[in-house]
Design goal:
Structural class: mainly alpha
Helix content: over 70%
Order of helices and strands: HHHHHHHHHHHHHH
Distance between the termini: 52 Å
Oligomer: single chain
Radius of gyration: 28 Å
Shape: globular
Amino acid sequence: MVVVSGQGPALATGTAARRVRRRRGGPSRGWRVTPWLFLLVPLGLLVLFTYVPVANMFWYSLTSWDGLDPVKEPVGLRNYAEIFTRPEILRVFVVSLYYLVGAAVQMVIALYFATILSFNVRFRNWFKGIIFFPYLINGVAIGLVFLFFFRPGGTLDAILQVVGVSDPPQWLGDPSLVNVSLAGASVWRYIGLNFVLFLGAIQSIPDELYEAADLDGANPWQKFRYITAPGIRQIIGLSSILAVSGALSAFEMPFVMTGGSNGSATFVIQTVNTAFEFSKVGLASAMAVVLLVIVLVISWLQRRIFPDDKVDLV
């Protein structure tokens, strides 16, 4: 063994000291515990305000509790059977289809504007602000604005009279049009969120790819198909799951504008009415659990269709 400049014994001593500290739970062990100390408070809040309420909700769904009686009589799976056998409860899923179609239209429009405004366009910052601004407004305020917009003799009817429509329909009073009107209002409100997500994803794609495509003579559609769309595939998947879950849990707009009347009650409005108007908290909890399961299943399918693998565009 060759010792250089007398450092061999010192190195051996330091190694032995580190081994002793590890056996005694020295600084290295404390370093492993420190991150959990910082996570203790947020994890506690997460369990207290998320997992405990979900567990209580599942327990309530197995009872016939009315929300006031201290005794919660167990009924097993009777509430879940009632959900899938009562027509008025199943009918609200049809209402969600309107919002699902609206969400698809919203994503297409948002992707279109994000693709255009991600490049050099005149007044693009101004257009970005206009598109994103509705998402910053409170949902109740937007509901009140569109309530005046769709009412008889309101803004929409005045615009239609200018173009020659003298007898406009009842936008919120006609059961065949009320959900189309509400879904259209939700498209205007949430388009800014998808727009920002798509815009950030598109701008993260290297410009060299588009320059190479221009040199190869690619047209705009080919650049979108082979560069833009693959590059933002994960964001498209995220927006899809947000759109589906938002369509199933729509509440603010229809509740403020119609209160769920004329066949516009969504699943969440039906759940709230079941709990607080009809005093069937057990059944309402079962409906909430069903909605949670549906969202989790859709999230799982989204992860299977759009896995979190890195996209290689080169």
